[in-house]
Amino acid sequence: MIVARATSAMRRESLRDIGEVKDKNILLAGYGTGLDNPHLPAGANYVGLDLTPAMLTRARQNMSTHVNLHCGDAMRMPYADNSFDVVVLHLILAVVPQPVAVLKETARVLKPGGQVLLLDKFIRPGQLAPIRRLINIVIRHIATRTDVVFEQVLAEVPTLRVTRDVPCIPGGWFRRIMLAKQHTETS
Q1: CB within 10 Å: which end of the chain, N or C, has fewer?
Q2: Chain-centroid distance, C-alpha 125
Q3: Nearest Cα to Cα of residue 84 among 56, 62, 105
Q4: Is position 78 within any domain?
């Protein structure tokens, strides 16, 4: 309940960036209990992926927009290449043990020209953030990391580029980032 209240406005703003959704295939990786669901625009084909069956059971109880829920690992997504027009990664990259693996999988399942919507707590390159780094020593074992440098993760996935990067709250603890998958040339 606390996470839902604290992140609701940020989630809503991020999901507005999808734009027109009619007939788009949209993946919500790290779907959890479905906190994005109330903010999903109607008309898309939504797929929610989460590692934990218990989270998906809770999500099913609170659905307002239909989402096809799948149990699976965001670090090894069970989808074909170029399957989705949009991939939503809300509060997942700082939770998973291998954020680079999630972003690589995201790029793989995303269609060329598709977009990725990220919402998470990231440190900017060179930012000292001593409080966040200190908090991370304890909290990373419980729920999430507070020391992820997004630019270091993105550097490992050259097919994705930043099209928008907006701090959500003062101090930039949370950022809304939009990425686009570059079109690849065919021989």
Answers
A1: C
A2: 20
A3: 105
A4: yes
For residue 148, the Cα-to-chain-centroid distance in whole angstroms is 14
Helices (H), 46-91: 53-61
Is 133 inside a domain boundary? no
Strand order in the sheet with 68-71: 68-71, 45-50, 25-29, 84-90, 110-121, 174-181, 160-167
- Provide the pLDDT confidence category of residue 183 given band limits of 50, 70 and 90: confident
Which amino acid is present at 61? Q
Contacts of 141 (CB under 8 A, 6+ apart): none
**From CA 99, how far away is CA 82, in angstroms rounded?**
20
Q: What tokens appear for 133 in the block? A: 């780094």
Domain that holds residue 74: 2-121+148-181
Q: What is the pLDDT of residues 34-56, one digit of tens each?
A: 999 999 999 999 999 999 999 99
Per the CB < 8 A criterion, the answer to whether 115 and 86 are in contact is yes
Contact (CB, 8 A) for 103 and 159: no
Residue 143 resides in a domain? no
Give the domain CATH number at 53.
3.40.50.150
Per-residue pLDDT reduced to its tens digit, 63-93: 878 999 999 999 999 999 999 999 999 989 8
The Cα–Cα gap between 122 and 173 comes to 6
Q: If you search the block for the tokens 């949209």, which residue do you land on?
A: 26
